[in-house]
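Entry 14. Structure prediction run on the chain below.
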Amino acid sequence: MKLVVADTNAFLRFLLNDISEQVKKFEKILKQAQKSEIIIVVPQIIIFELNFILSKYYLFPKQDVVEKLQSIIKTPYFKIQDIEIFREAIKLYAKSNLSLADSFVYYYCEAWKADLFTFDKKLSNLK
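Output returned:
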């Protein structure tokens, strides 16, 4: 099966529905994935970039960002790198004052049964 990596911009156009020509092109790719004609691969960096851009550039409230990220994570035809870690990290991010990156690192350590070395007081309090 053909693999397609959609970049952050493709996801942004779709989530924001702001450039109709680009949204339509991405929707075509999504329909191919829905029909199992292709697999859309989503590397970790895409999730982190979406979080950053939606929060810092578009100034979306945290809850709106969380909802958009969860919609991506829940999409069954996306192959998301470290999806189980993201599922937990996004939940923690939603209910805490931790960043998504710190939430991810925390659950990454959990998944790998690794000790976390940090100077971050909020993160070290989770231990």
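The radius of gyration is 16 Å.
Filed with the rest of this week's runs.
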